[in-house]
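To close the chapter, one final illustration. This time we ask the reader to focus less on the individual chains and more on the assembly as a whole: which components sit near each other, and how the overall shape emerges from the parts.
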Amino acid sequence: MRIDCKHVWEHISAYIDSEVAEDLRSEIDRHLETCEICSAVLDSTRNVVVLMADERVFELPAGYSARLHRRLDTEMANKEC
Amino acid sequence: MTAPNPEFEADCIRRILAGEKQLFHDLIRPCERSIYFLLFTLLRNQAEAEDAAQETTIKVFRNLHLFRGESQFRTWVLSIARNEGLGRIRKAESRREDSLEELTEGQSGDFTPAVLTSWSEIPAAALERKELGAILRKAVEGLPEIYRNVVMLRDIEEMDVRETAVALGISEGAVKVRLHRARALLQRDLAPRLKGFAPKKRGKFFGWGA
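The assembled structure is written out below.
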């Protein structure tokens, strides 16, 4: 059985997370060997996922942690727990 | 994201409940980034997310004796954060009637990726350019809420499927479907715009090389 591009796209996310069954994975790998479009779609999707996970993309507001712990100190001082 | 350490957490919780309250700072520190980003994705406002994160942390402190250790500590903390966020959304709901619809699972939608014939990898070093980070943030923030939440926890906070499902109160299957759609939408939006960030090799004499 040969799978088509649309079928590959449906499984791209699971493929990136290594969550596709072995048989399907080999089918997709075979398809990728000859399909430039699916290879580019896979590479670009994976690249986007990797870039987004970089801590420089989503940063905490400056001083967030310090303010959080100050608030906790106030709470601990006020409350008997 | 800091990897959870159940033994450290269990020990900390025992000691905090026995009176060493200051240890709570160390217990909550590995969770504070995830708390903020979960709330930011729900509330879409930096100041409100921070305020909600502080409230969440105080609720966790006050209710620590209720933690049973049946889930990971962080998962429990994030459920409290989620309730805090949803409570605030419900309060604002009367002003924003459209948001309810946004929270339900959309069946329709086009999740076809951007079709490219080649892709040159954009290295993490390209993030030194502030505009790249801004483009990525804007794309995530522009996703429909149900996809944004999942992508934030799975891809940005790097939680596993199970933990994401519990924190968002949805099934593991829904996490996978939504993550797939979110990534497809992001790829379609971003791929054409990110191409310019790929490193280019300078040709010897004319313009750009391959």
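Chain B touches chain A through 52 residues (CB under 8 Å). DSSP finds ten helices and no strands in chain B. With these observations in hand, you are ready for the problems at the end of the chapter.
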